[in-house]
Amino acid sequence: MTLVSNAERSGHASVEDATGLHRAIDWKGAFWIASGVPALVLISIGGMGATAGKLAFLVWALSVLMGFVQAYSYAEIAGLFANKSGGAAVYGAAAWLRYSKLTAPLSVWCNWYAWSPVLSLGCAVAAGYILNAVAPLPVFTPESPEVIAWLKMAAHAAAIDGKSAEEAAKVAIAALTEAGTPALRAFKLVSFSFFGLANIEIGATFFIGAVLMLVAFAIQHRGILGTARVQMWIGLLVVVPMLIVGVVPFLNGSVHAANFSPLLPPAGSWSNGGWTQFFGALFIAGWSTYAFETAVCYTREFKNPGSDTKKSIISAGLLCVVLYALVAATFQGYLGLDGMTAPDIVDGTGVAAAMGNMVGSGSPIITHLLEMMMILALILAIMMAMAGSSRTLYQGGVDGWLPKFLAHTNAHGAPTRAMWTDLVFNLGLLTFAASDATAYYLILSISNVGYMLFIFLNLQATWIHRIDSPDIPRPYRAPNWLVAFNALLGFFNLLLMGAGAKVWGNPNALWYGLAFALVIIPVFLYRHYVQDKGRFPDHMLVDLDLKGQDLGARRAGLLPYLTLAAGAAVVLFGHFYFQLPG
Q1: In angstroms, rounded to a whole number, what is the distance separating the alpha carbons of residues 62 and 279?
Q2: Residue 9: its pLDDT value, please?
Q3: How far apart are CA 571 and CA 497, in angstroms?
Q4: How many Å is the Cα radius of gyration of the chain?
Q5: Which of 538, 131, 486 is nearest to 293 (CA)?
Q6: How many CA atoms lie within 13 A of 226 on its CB side?
Q7: pLDDT, average across residues 220-227
């Protein structure tokens, strides 16, 4: 093993300070960047109600508690790497590198393609809110004068011939809504079917979403300090209203206990199908509730990484535990199952109106303020996702796992090429996310397959680092029992993935996600063996006191390989044993 002196490690850091990311924030800056995570509950709260039924509030609470417990393992491994950015995936990948050159880039890639779609999904929902504000759809009821007049017109007699009064009113409402839809909403540049998976429409939602992405890019172009400052002010405008929404309905009597029972999945019993629905709900919830681990993406940009790392992730985790539990409970307690599964709650565009009814008795002023809060919340999530995912790409480029062109920063220390990569990739995804709910949840489930793979690899990386690098100073050391418990949670997450991916959008979502994960293998092989001639950068493992091509001793022996084999078995068992209700 080649040892590196503290002076060498410091020298390496100082070089990067001048040419790469800048040490400009403390734990509070990372906390405010991660404050966009609670807003993710508003993206999928309706879909969760449709999948989990009256178990939805329990799913959110259990999932965020699991994410909080897992954060302690991330805090330990992040503390090992004062000179890296990119988050837990990068820190965990360093543990797997000794045992497989392919597993390390897989971890980084899976983390990125799990995080990156937040941009497109968030922009799609935010664009829907903006369209509702500037070009609202007309609203008609069977009693509306326009509907009554339409039904009396002789020209429409054939359209309603033989139909009941209720059916005829629906026909009239559909016709009047189509005729009264503003031109902006009806605009479509192109529309087509994408291999039968989704109907793609490039219209107003796409273009508004694209503008929001460019705004997020422009703000982050100024570097991490500027991003953190903007996030703090937006975060305050989002977190405070979410706390109000999470507390006030309990005080004004809007929460009804009957909406929480019986504790059964939509299948009606805890049968195989019922457990599949429950596991599918936990699977997709983790995409949101685990996401505050993004707080450790900025270790390389902390002024004092030794202490800031743990503070940032634990504080962000506590915020998420409170907001996820409260907001999920108030929504379900107020809306009930029927309200949670309404189309405008499932697609996200009616969430603000529901919150306005919960805390402001439907006051138009309060509802409009909450609509603005929703747009800001989604922008907060978009900026958070771009900040974290771009740094994952950047560090992958620096460490020799991802394409070399990603290892670039501008004068402000922003990884601009990685940000452009995020932007272009998500403009493509936005064509799906802005089209229909089926495509939206298909993207969500595929990206979450990558997230669960990353979670599993990194929860195992904690004990691998302990075995292989026992003498490296750890600013924070998690309790032994918690490291072991989190390793088991890694397997449980794989079970959720195997059983639950099929619940969302497509029965083959698991295989699509796994196939997309493997895309990185030829990319890595080209980078490592063609561009870098089979050598990793000398600085890659400097934080582990290793230099050059010395990856260190494999003290864990066969354990990592047995762990991977056991993980694959759990996924296959979950997929084939658990099936949706007939």
Answers
A1: 12
A2: 39
A3: 7
A4: 25
A5: 486
A6: 11
A7: 64
CB-CB contact of 332 with 57 (8 Å): yes
3-state secondary structure of 136: coil
How big is the chain, counted in residues? 582
Which 3 state secondary structure label does DSSP give 142?
A: coil
Cα 336 from Cα 149, distance rounded (Å): 35
Residue 488, token pair as written in the block: 């088991």
Instruction: Identify which of 160, 28, 94, 109 has the alpha carbon closest to the alpha carbon of residue 469.
Output: 94
What are the Cα distances from residue 517, in Å, to 108, 124, 452, 461, 524? 10, 24, 11, 19, 12
- The neighbour count for residue 162, using CB atoms within 10 Å, is 7
pLDDT at 178 over 60: yes
Q: 65: which 2 tokens?
A: 């508690």
Three-state DSSP at 521 gives: helix
DSSP for 334-351? HHHHHHHTSHHHHSSTTH
Q: Give the 3-state secondary structure of residue 192.
A: strand
CA–CA separation, 387 vs 36, rounded Å? 11
Secondary structure element (H or E) that encloses residue 200, with its range: strand 198-203
Q: Give the closest residue to 543 by CA, choosing from 82, 137, 99, 42.
A: 82
Token pair of 383, please? Answer: 């900026």
| Amino acid letter for position 368 | H
Q: Which long-range contacts (CB under 8 A, 24 or more apart) does 188-197 make?
A: 194/432, 194/439, 197/439, 197/442, 197/506
Cα–Cα distance, 414 to 287 (Å, whole number): 26
| Cis-peptide, bond into residue 262, ω within 30° of zero | yes
The band of 515, judged by pLDDT with boundaries at 50, 70 and 90, is: very high
Say what the alpha-carbon torsion angle 536, 537, 542, 548 is, to the nearest 10 degrees: 70
SS3 532: coil
Strand 198-203 to strand 188-194: parallel, antiparallel, or no bridges (unpaired)? antiparallel
Distance CA 146, CA 306 (A): 67
- CA separation for the pair 377, 146 (Å, rounded): 37
Q: Write the burial class of residue 508 (CB in 10 Å: 0-12 exposed, 13-18 middle, 19+ buried).
A: middle
Q: How do residues 7-66 score in pLDDT, each as one tens digit?
A: 333 333 333 444 456 666 677 777 777 777 777 777 778 778 888 888 999 999 999 999
Rounded distance, CA 342 to CA 45, Å? 11
H/E stretch holding 202 reads: strand 198-203
Q: How far apart are CA 244 and CA 236, in angstroms?
A: 12
CB-based contacts of 569, cutoff 8 Å, min separation 6: none
Structure tokens at 530: 């063609």
- Single-letter residue type at 417: R
- Least Cα distance to 318 among 40, 489, 49, 72 occurs for 72
Rounded CA-CA distance 506/513 in Å is 11
Contact 382, 126 (CB under 8 A): yes
pTM: 0.83
DSSP 8-class letter at 83: T
Other CB atoms closer than 10 Å to residue 520's CB: what's the count?
23
**Angle at Cα 312 formed by Cα 308 and Cα 313, nearest 5°?**
125
Residue 188 belongs to what H/E stretch? strand 188-194
